[in-house]
Design brief:
183 residues, globular, single chain, mainly beta
Length: 183
């Protein structure tokens, strides 16, 4: 399996996994008077064979999310290993579902929250990948205290699962995030 495919798949997994919270004030993402909220996370992502027996890639992850509940948007800036990406979420009016894509238009699809608590809502996502390695990326994300865990599968255009990505990220402070950025 081509390493660029794995890196792209793992990065897409990260870009669509996070609930939306502020490390210090996770319950006011819906408060229109507070303006945008921020979330910072750090952890690891491991991409394996579908059964988990073979590890294809394991990378460190660093993420910053800007959540604007007034506009109904989320912007994720992530470092997944050495790859920087920007992902855009736009809320579909009257739903808990966001349309999602990245600045390269390498994928599109939806992420659906289980509740309107963007801070710690579990979610599911359904994405279509384009380009050299087309297919689908589907899975779930679950919060447990301040840790977010994901389980996602990449399937080729014929629907055959080719890889699985498991992530574990923990909320960190803005100071910890800034200290962890590469120089």
């Amino acid at each position: 399996m081509h390493l660029r495919f794995l890196h792209t798949t793992a990065t897409l997994c990260l870009l669509t996994f996070l609930g939306c919270s502020n490390n210090e004030a996770t319950d006011d993402t819906g408060n229109e008077e507070t303006g945008p909220q921020f979330q910072y996370l750090q952890g690891t992502s491991e991409t394996t064979s579908p059964n988990g027996a073979v590890t294809y890639e394991e990378v460190d992850v660093l993420a910053k999310k800007t959540i604007d509940s007034i506009a109904g948007t989320i912007v994720e800036d992530t470092l997944h290993g050495d790859e920087a990406r920007k992902t855009f979420f736009t809320l579909q009016p009257g739903t808990l579902t966001f349309d999602v894509t990245d600045e390269e238009n390498s994928f599109s699809g939806t992420v659906t929250f289980e509740s309107d608590d963007w801070a710690k809502s579990n979610l599911t996502y359904d994405l279509e990948l384009f380009g050299q390695y087309p297919g689908t990326l589907t899975g779930t994300g679950v919060w447990e205290d301040d840790t977010y865990m994901t389980d996602k599968e990449f399937a080729d255009p014929e629907g055959v699962v080719q890889a699985r990505t498991i992530e574990e990220l923990t909320l960190i402070s803005e100071e910890e995030y800034l200290a962890a950025l590469p120089e």
